[in-house]
């Protein structure tokens, strides 16, 4: 991270009111700022959050994650941490404490969600990464992370169409109901997995 990046992050931390409608992340040394998500996006995140049992799990939206060995502080749409794995304080949860990172794809986040964050979360050894894509009406669950840096990836991929249940074994056999996830009109975008 450069000195300019560090100063910008200090400004974000000290004056959140200036950036309240934007999502700001540090991804591999680059500060990325996006407009706030739309209604469909937020309802999907809320549905996932509400379905995951709270007894064993903290289900937290917009929580920054520290990826070891990376100049990255991504902010997944939802972070699932087993209670007791991280006690805080601080705005950064260490990636090894995260059990599941969830991203809901938006028009501006396609490449970040499918490519950049995939390798970042794998490099951070986050056991499961769930990409929910309302444009394609599907979920992509990635498990078994391996490798380091930009070459890191997940060994196992499971694609599920909206409407089919999705087994999240990493959460103790929990099954996610995707039948009420909203969709968005398809947009032209680069070919991704």
TrEMBL record:
Residues 21-177 form the Putative restriction endonuclease domain. Pfam families: Uma2. Keywords: Endonuclease, Hydrolase, Nuclease. GO terms for molecular function: endonuclease activity. It comes from the Bacteria. InterPro entries: Nuclease_put_TT1808, Restrct_endonuc-II-like, Uma2. SUPFAM superfamilies: Restriction endonuclease-like. Gene3D superfamilies: tt1808, chain A (3.90.1570.10). PANTHER family: SLL1072 PROTEIN, SLR1083 PROTEIN. This is Uma2 family endonuclease. It comes from Streptomyces bambusae.
């Amino acid at each position: 991270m450069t000195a300019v990046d560090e100063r910008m992050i200090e400004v974000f931390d000290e004056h959140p009111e200036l950036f309240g409608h934007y999502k700001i992340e540090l991804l591999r040394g680059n500060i990325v700022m996006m407009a706030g998500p739309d209604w469909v996006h937020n309802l999907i995140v809320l549905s996932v959050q509400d379905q995951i049992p709270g007894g064993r799990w903290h289900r937290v939206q917009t929580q920054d994650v520290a990826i070891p060995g990376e100049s990255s502080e991504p902010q997944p749409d939802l972070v699932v941490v087993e209670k007791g794995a991280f006690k805080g304080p601080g705005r950064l949860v260490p990636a090894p404490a995260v059990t599941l990172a969830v991203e809901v794809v938006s028009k501006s986040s396609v490449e970040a969600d499918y490519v950049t964050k995939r390798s970042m979360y794998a490099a951070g050894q986050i056991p499961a990464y769930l990409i929910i894509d309302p444009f394609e009406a599907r979920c992509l669950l990635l498990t078994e992370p391996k490798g380091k840096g930009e070459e890191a990836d997940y060994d196992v991929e499971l694609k599920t169409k909206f409407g089919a249940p999705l087994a999240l074994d990493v959460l103790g056999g929990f099954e996610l109901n995707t039948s009420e996830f909203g969709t968005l009109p398809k947009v032209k975008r680069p070919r991704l997995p």
